[in-house]
């Protein structure tokens, strides 16, 4: 059983700096995801620490915060059937070297930290992460506004 679902994605600073934004968005929309909200944000240290607070005890946390505040990110909300898992599949494994061919991280990631994109990993985290970047009023009621995907 699949149902229409929302997930939060980020294009990370490495991919924006490398000029991959357009290609990444093309892959995502070609895979049938609908973008229902999008903004560019230069995260403060406090915001980046709050977004990744679940990793605060990990050895890579200071470096991750440094990276995520090294340039702007593009945050967007995707909607699709089973969007959370479907987008994790499109992104590929955390380490681009281990990501399946054709996935966003295999195509655009540099290493396990600078891995081009983020995607929510559960419905609870999707709700939290969407609310971190967007109010409900900023999201487009996609079913009533856009033609359905073919
Ligand atoms: P994301 O949460 O960004 O979608 P993920 O769920 O695949 O990625 P997490 O385990 O949640 O991976 O790690 C969050 C982020 O921290 C990774 O995307 C990556 O940028 C960084 N990271 C994870 N593991 C490492 C590591 N071993 N060394 C350096 N950075 C890491
Ligand atoms: Mg994660």
The CATH topology is given as: Alpha-Beta Plaits
Low-confidence stretches: none
From the coordinates shown, what is the CATH architecture? 2-Layer Sandwich
Total domain units: 1
Based on the model shown, name its key terms.
single chain; 150 residues; alpha+beta; Alpha-Beta Plaits; four-stranded antiparallel β-sheet; 8 helices; 4 strands; 39% helix; globular; binds adenosine-5'-triphosphate; binds magnesium ion
Can you put this structure into words, describing what you see?
This protein has 150 residues and is an alpha+beta fold. The protein has one domain: Nucleoside diphosphate kinase-like domain (Alpha-Beta Plaits), CATH 3.30.70. Helix content is 39%, strand content 19%. It has eight helices and four strands, in the order βααβααβααβαα. Strands 2-3-1-4 form a four-stranded antiparallel sheet, sandwiched between helices. The mean pLDDT is 95. The protein binds adenosine-5'-triphosphate and magnesium ion. Adenosine-5'-triphosphate (ATP) binds next to strand 4. Adenosine-5'-triphosphate binds next to strand 4.
Spell out the blueprint of helices and strands:
Layout: E1 4-11, H1 13-17, H2 21-30, E2 34-41, H3 45-51, H4 61-68, E3 73-81, H5 83-91, H6 104-108, E4 117-119, H7 123-133, H8 142-145
Antiparallel strand pairs: 1-3, 1-4, 2-3
The protein binds adenosine-5'-triphosphate and magnesium ion (MG).
């Amino acid at each position: 059983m699949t149902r229409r679902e929302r997930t939060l994605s980020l294009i990370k600073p490495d991919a924006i700096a490398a000029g991959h934004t357009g290609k990444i968005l093309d892959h995502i929309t070609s895979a049938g995801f609908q973008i229902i909200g999008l903004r560019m944000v230069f995260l403060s240290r406090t915001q980046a620490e709050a977004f990744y607070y679940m990793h605060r005890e990990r050895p890579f946390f200071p470096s991750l915060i440094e990276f995520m505040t090294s340039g702007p990110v593009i945050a967007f909300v995707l909607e699709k059937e089973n969007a959370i898992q479907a987008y994790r599949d499109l992104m590929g494994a955390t380490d681009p070297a281990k990501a399946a061919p054709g996935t966003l991280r295999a195509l655009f990631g540099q290493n396990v930290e600078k891995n081009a994109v983020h995607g929510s990993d559960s419905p609870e985290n999707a709700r939290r992460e969407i609310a971190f970047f967007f109010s409900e009023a900023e999201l487009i009621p996609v079913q009533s506004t856009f033609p359905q995907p073919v």
